Amino acid sequence: MLLATLLLTAGSLADRLGRRRVFATGLAIYSVAAILCALAPTATLLDLACALLGAGGAIMFSTSLALLGQEFHGSKERGTAFGTWGTTIAAALAIGPLAGGFLTGAFGWRAIFAVLAPITMVAFVISLARVPESTHPEAHQRHVDWIGFATFTIALFLLIFVLIQGNSSGFGSPLILAAIAGFVVSMAAFIAAEVIQADHGNAEPMLDLTLFRKPAFTGGAMAALTSAGANFGLTFYIVIYLQKVRGNSPLETGLWFLPITGVAFLASPLAGRLMARLAHRWIMGAALLLVAIGDLLLFGQTATSPLTTLLPGFVLIGIGAGAINPPLGATAVGVVPPERAGMASGVNTTFRQLGTALGIAGLGAFFQSDIARHLPAAFSDPHVASLVAAGNLKAAAAAAPGIGGAAETAFMAALNDLFLVIAAVALVGAICALTMVRQKDFERDEAPAADAQASPRVGPAERAHG
Q: Are 101 and 250 in contact (CB under 8 A)?
């Protein structure tokens, strides 16, 4: 929750306080939180430490694109930079499940957090030593938008709460209805505050709503939302299928995901190179179309299907997931003025995180209700459906004697329906990217494929010493 709610706030504060300073602060918080997680003696303290971990992660994620955007200009430079950035993300996705499975099996869950601390400490030192500082040139003239900070944080917190708790508490329960009402009120107050402060206030709005007048900015945000929703939603439920239904260990599950993560690792730098030749929308649209086709290829799975039948779909999804990151990141900071880079980075990352939450929680609501629809009427109790949705087929059999193989059949039927829904989500993202991310919306000299024949620009190293 803290990861999602603090992204935009941290991005806007970075424009004012300094992007390197805010990024380094996030690294420091993340490192301390990782140590606290590894040492947590109780589940409650672990939850609190994880919340702090999320806060540090939000601060890091929200400023990463802005840091790249301030140093690299033109489609060729940014193609290389964002391609490398995307490759790093793909490498983390490839290594993470394998390393997590190994560390958990060999040393226990605490080891997962223990290894994070030294990595972030090294990154902290490098960021202070090598990353130049940058801020909004007029940041000192206006106050921090505390009203926007408070209302947006409350609104997003309530939205994520509804998505996470809606299934277990019931979307019609008083608690969830109250949270939905609170979200609507808080979001309305946030929008009103941003409009008023932009026109008449003496504070710098946390979110410049006029940015959404640019179709490319809105299209990039929608592409980020749908890409994250499709990819992370798929990952979450495929993990349940591989581990709970097919009985694979965490390490084995990580190996089965290598066709996605490994191909993404290769596709990302290639997409970065293409950014100097093709408009960003073509790369983003093609990437999301490949994800949609890959999801369609997964349709038709059964509880006894050879797992190798997943591979064609996994490969296409991996290409799409890797190829979209470089142009998506470059679009986020390329269609806004340089002084708004932190804000734009925060918006893009917020939409990604919202997509992840919607992909897991929103699709989860559909998945559970679809399982209830496929179960025999005698066993369609919400509690039984929730057990089946979580892959706890033995617990479902204990809760509903006589359910037999109907639980597994319902799970697989709903999983195949989910593949179709995720494909539709990716297709919507592809349409948004192709129709809304226009080259003319990019800031001058930042338009993709516009400077391929231009004279060489001064690179980051030369700028630093010039």
A: yes
Asked whether residue 278 is assigned to any structural domain, the reply reads: yes
The answer to whether residue 111 sits within a structural domain is yes
Sequence-distant (≥ 6) Cβ neighbours of residue 410 within 8 angstroms: 371, 374, 375, 388
149 with 103, same domain: the answer is no
38 is a domain residue = yes
The pLDDT profile of the chain, 466 residues, written as one tens digit per residue, is 677 677 777 877 777 788 889 999 999 999 999 999 999 999 999 999 998 998 898 888 878 877 887 777 766 776 777 777 777 777 777 677 778 778 887 888 899 899 999 999 999 999 999 888 877 665 555 566 788 888 988 888 888 788 777 766 777 889 999 999 999 999 999 999 888 877 765 666 777 788 888 899 899 999 999 998 898 888 888 989 998 888 888 778 888 888 888 888 888 888 888 888 888 899 999 999 999 999 999 999 988 899 999 999 999 999 999 899 888 888 888 888 777 777 777 788 888 888 887 787 788 888 888 998 888 887 877 788 888 888 888 888 888 888 878 889 999 999 999 999 999 999 999 999 999 998 888 875 555 554 444 334 444 444 444 3
Residues 322, 79 contacting (CB under 8 angstroms): no
Q: Are residues 199 and 217 in the same domain?
A: no
Alpha carbon distances (Å) from 78 to 303, 352, 355: 45, 20, 25
- Cα–Cα distance between 282 and 280 in angstroms, integer? 6
Considering the domain boundaries, does residue 19 fall inside one? yes
Instruction: Indicate the pTM of the whole model.
Output: 0.79
211/290 same-domain check: yes
Question: Within a 10 A sphere around the Cβ of 105, how many other Cβ atoms?
Answer: 12
Q: What is the Cα–Cα distance from 42 to 26, expressed in whole angstroms?
A: 25
Amino acid identity of 279? A
**What secondary structure does DSSP assign to 421-432, as a single string?**
HHHHHHHHHHHH
